[in-house]
Write a structure and sequence with these properties.
By secondary structure, the protein is α/β, with parallel strands linked by helices. It contains ten helices and seven strands. Helix 5 links the parallel strand 4 and strand 5. Bound molecules: zinc ion (ZN). The site of zinc ion has 5 residues, from loops. Belongs to the MshB deacetylase family. Mca subfamily.
């Protein structure tokens, strides 16, 4: 039997820190298992605000581009991944009513076919079997997250097509495409209930008050990766993004013990596959491992 081709996983994210807040425990688990994980970050996060009061000090916001690069470097060490920047400029979160127009030249305003080219190149050179990105709503409606979805889906399919982007390397058909569903309503409900039960303030109470049930959306989850043992690694990677993550804020309001007991997995939606796999799955590489017939 020929030796198993090394497993490779590519995550495409909008900003530095997204790789540590979405699917990061799965990342750490796969890295521990020997999978080669590559993160692609579409923008430099230049328009992110300083969201951690401890970092709101002189020298930070003025140098946010360099600061966020250094934070990303620390996070990728912690997660054990390699990473590339696509080099686009953060579109920022449009605030106001009506919302202001997006800034000239930002990622969200790029033509999808043009913005996909550098990603096609990376897919063809890294040759991942599995690619992840956001759902069509962006996971949350930041213009860069929606654009990340558009660009990733375009590049995933175009990378396999020899007629598309002929100067961007040898065609590569990745076998599976997933969307992240990390912050789903059933998870928020389960964690909220557990927090109330032990008498702690739930960071989800406010969100849940207006979060309309959408069972059809929740049913889109096909894959739950059991990665609770790696929640600590995820948290350390998140904390490396010091300008974005307040250690006393939302991200750390739920004790790890509660998370591990109530929801010890990260959730994904398999949207495209050319290998046989049985749903629901517990592994992004289901159907691709030696002896699985894939
Ligand atoms: Zn983001």
């Amino acid at each position: 039997m020929p030796p198993q081709e090394p497993l490779r996983l590519m995550h495409v994210h909008a900003h530095p820190d997204d790789e540590s807040s979405k699917g990061a425990a799965s990342t750490a688990m796969y890295v521990a298992e020997g999978v080669d994980v590559h993160v692609v970050t579409c923008t430099g996060g230049e328009r992110g605000s300083v969201l951690n009061p401890n970092m709101d000090r002189p020298g930070i916001l003025e140098n946010i581009h360099e600061v966020r690069r250094a934070e990303m470097e620390a996070a990728r060490e912690i997660l054990g991944v390699t990473q590339d920047w696509l080099g686009f400029i953060d579109s920022g979160w449009p605030e106001g009513d009506p919302k202001p127009p997006l800034p000239d030249g930002c990622f969200a305003l790029q033509d999808v076919a043009v913005a996909a080219e550098p990603l096609v190149r990376l897919i063809r050179s890294f040759r991942p079997q599995v690619v992840t990105t956001y759902d069509e709503r962006g996971g949350y409606p930041h213009p860069d997250h929606i654009q990340c979805h558009n660009v990733s889906v375009e590049a995933f399919h175009a990378a396999a097509d020899p007629e598309r982007y002929p100067d961007a390397g040898e065609p590569w058909q990745a076998s599976k495409l997933y969307f992240h569903h990390t912050f789903n309503r059933p998870r928020a409900i389960a964690i909220n209930e557990a927090m109330v039960e032990i008498g702690l303030e739930s960071p989800y109470a406010e969100r849940l008050a207006t979060w309309q049930p959408d069972p059809a959306w929740d049913d889109r989850i096909t894959t739950r990766v059991p990665c609770g043992d790696y929640f600590e690694v995820r948290d350390r990677a998140l904390l490396a993004h010091a300008t974005q993550i307040d250690p006393d804020g939302f991200w750390f309001a739920v004790p790890l013990e509660v998370q591990k007991r109530v929801w010890p997995h990260e959730d994904f939606e398999l949207v495209w596959s050319d290998v046989e796999t049985e749903l629901p799955e517990t592994d992004l590489f289901a159907g691709l491992r030696e002896g699985s017939g894939g």
